[in-house]
Amino acid sequence: MIPLWLMSLMSFNPIDWGREHGARVSDSIAIGTTSYGGRGLFAVEDIEADKELLYLPGSLQLGVGQLAEGDDAEMQKFVKSLPWRDILASELTLIPCAISIIAAMRDEESFFHSYLQTIPTEYTNAMANLEDDDSPSLTGSPLTADKVISKRRILRQIHQQLAPSLPLRELSWASAVVSSRAFSRRRPSPVNPDRIDRIGPIAAVDSSRFLPLIDITNHGGKTFANADVRHSIEDKIAPAYDPHSTSLISTRGIKKGEEILIDYGGGRSISNERLLMDYGFIIPDSAGDTARLRFNEDLIPALQTFDDDRRGMAEVSEGDLMGIRKLAQCIIMEQKSPILFDASGKPSLPTMVLTLVLSCRGVEDVARIIAPVRELKSQKGSDDVIIDPLEYPDLLLKIYSASAPEHQELAFRVLRQAASLALQLVSTEQPEEAEGGVTFEDVARDYCRERRHILQRAALLGPGT
Question: Where are the beta strands (DSSP E) in 112-207?
Answer without folding.
Answer: 182-184
